[in-house]
Design goal:
- The chain is elongated and about 55 Å long.
- Helix content is about 70%, strand content about 0%.
- With about 140 residues, the protein is mainly α.
- The chain contains eight helices and no strands.
């Protein structure tokens, strides 16, 4: 499975748990952990955010936060806003100072990248799609 497939598939144990199927949820979590470890060994890759979610589901809050911090630290900020603001799995952690520190670090990084992008737009290194002229044929469509 690729990373996107793991992200989608990792929702299955969450849904099973929420629906009261704790044993089946645990079987899926164990299977995902084994698969993630196999991917890490064979391809040198890892899926730390998925691992973090599985650890959190298993009640290993400290390890889950460490894995989440490591995932963001390595530069994977895809869907940062969902993970840190909306993902129901992490919602109980919002008050934890460690989670808040992770969220703050990510926001600092996102702000830095946005600032760099603005500089690049100002210098003309990258086009500013927000200010691109609307073609006349599009502007006249009602």
């Amino acid at each position: 499975m690729d990373v996107c497939a793991y992200n989608v598939a990792s929702s299955l144990p969450v849904l099973l748990e929420a629906d009261g199927h704790k044993a089946e949820s645990q079987r899926w979590r164990d299977a995902f952990k084994q698969d993630i470890d196999a991917v890490a060994r064979s391809a040198g890759g890892d899926l730390p955010r998925v691992r973090a979610e599985l650890l959190l589901l298993d009640g290993h809050r400290d390890q889950a936060l460490e894995a989440l911090a490591e995932d963001f630290h390595t530069g994977d900020i895809r869907q940062w806003w969902y993970t840190l603001k909306f993902n129901p799995l992490w919602r109980p952690m919002h008050g934890d100072p460690r989670f808040q520190a992770i969220a703050n670090d990510v926001r600092v990084r996102v702000d830095l990248e946005r600032s760099q992008l603005e500089d690049m737009r100002r210098l003309g290194t990258v086009p500013d799609a927000r200010r691109a002229a609307v073609p006349a044929r599009v502007a006249t469509v009602r």
